Amino acid sequence: MASWADAITGYTAVFDDMVYTGVEQNLPAPTKLQKGLDEITVGIHATDWKKGGVSVTKILDAGEYTCTVQADGYDGTITATLTVAKSVVTVTGVNIPEAAGITFGDPKSEVEALYDAEYAFDGDLELDDAAKEALEAQFDAQLTFATNYDQWVDIAAFYVRPVIDALESTFTNYTFEPVDGALTVSPKTFTADLISSIADITYTAADLEDGIPARITLKDGTYVIDGEDFNYAYSKGGADVDHVKNAGTYTVTLTANANTNYTGSASKEFVVKRLVCSLPLWTLMIRFMMQMVLPLQ
Q1: pLDDT for 101-127, tens place per residue?
Q2: Based on the number of CB atoms within 10 Å of its own CB, is 261 exposed (0-12), middle (13-18) or buried (19 or more)?
Q3: Using one digit for the tens of pLDDT, what is the confidence trace for 48-75?
Q4: How many CA atoms within 13 Å lie on the side-chain side of 219?
Q5: Nearest to 269 by CA among 211, 190, 194, 198
Q6: Residues 131, 61 share a domain
Q7: In sequence order, which residues have a C-beta less than 8 Å from that of residue 123 and are 6 or more positions away?
Q8: Is residue 179 part of a domain?
Q9: What are phi and psi of 224, to 5 degrees?
Q10: Given a cut of 60, is residue 3 above it in pLDDT?
Q11: Total tally of structural domains belonging to the chain
């Protein structure tokens, strides 16, 4: 009979790392029992395996398994816990490239229709290709996405982000690592119909071009376009002009600056009205009196 010094009490069971593989695995004995610097490495036995309080004979799922451990030549038993890690699945949002045709101002629903993901399984997973494809289809049914894109949001570095909450709660044998995909949004072509209106301009004998952009309303539906994103050029009678001054019909051409929400150029005519002079009443009275006096001379 072993002495009290040989009791197993106080030892901790150490298992090799184990990961869920998708197929049943044997329940292992601990690789060693350890207490401080003391180790037991042979004659170790694990029995009475349970998971969640239910007796088991194989590893079928990830999670914690408990067992009763004894060692040859030692009195007593200890309870040990084996943790089977979840299999890692990397979920990558598929890039939505420029070729997909998303342009500034497109409804968010057009982006949502293009969402997709690719899955990369941990190397320890022992499922065949058909089983993995079936599993991916189940993932797809639960997977959602998030994006920082929205209609009328300035073009920026947009992402397509897998949202894994539902996957984590449904597929408990797996842990999911999301990786963002990129969404490329192209500038929208600028057209003349987006030059909504140009407020009336009247001749003042001064150069007018600096004040004209503020008189131009740019709208894309209900969205008000920032006029500072454009360069303005003027012409009259088909010839470019540096200044808008005299009365007449002019054409303003707006060219979108680089790295803005629009691209290209568009033009629209506007009129600088003649200045209408209204003579004061006293001036008219003097003229009338002069007309009455002059014939008497």
Answers
A1: 999 999 999 999 999 999 999 999 999
A2: buried
A3: 999 999 999 999 999 999 999 999 999 9
A4: 7
A5: 198
A6: no
A7: none
A8: yes
A9: -90, 120
A10: no
A11: 3
